[in-house]
Amino acid sequence: MHELCGKNYNHESFKRKLLTYNDIIDGMDELGVLVAGHKKNAYWFGSQLTIHEAKKISPYNTATTLQVVSGVIGGMVYAIENPNKGYLETEDMDHERVMEVIAPFLGTTGGAYTDWNPLVDRGRYFDDFDLDSSDPWQFYNVRYQ
Q1: DSSP code of 16?
Q2: Is 11 inside a domain boundary?
Q3: Residues 136 and 117 sit within 8 Å (Cβ to Cβ)
Q4: Low-confidence ranges of the chain (pLDDT < 70)
């Protein structure tokens, strides 16, 4: 929106290009979750899937589409296998079964601790006076990064 405003709302000046599976010829997508703010700082767990692995699994997809859709597939298989359980929150599902279903779509999975936090490199180029440096994981520090 900012760029469109800068062009005086002239949307014809923007060329729209749809990125397709053929446009991506190399690389890896890393999709995961960062569990942060605990005594060990932060832990990332996720999937690392190359475009070559993704095309072997499903030729007309990308690594990103397979990683995202795998969660939906896992949930659907669990629902089909457990029709009498009714409405469930994610944490009420058998995560081992869901992971068993989605593992073939995820490539390499794993996790690692990290020392990164929202204050790393903050204030390097611009003053950032409102930070809570006593606790880097305060919501304000994360939200306004």
Answers
A1: P
A2: no
A3: yes
A4: 13-18, 144-145
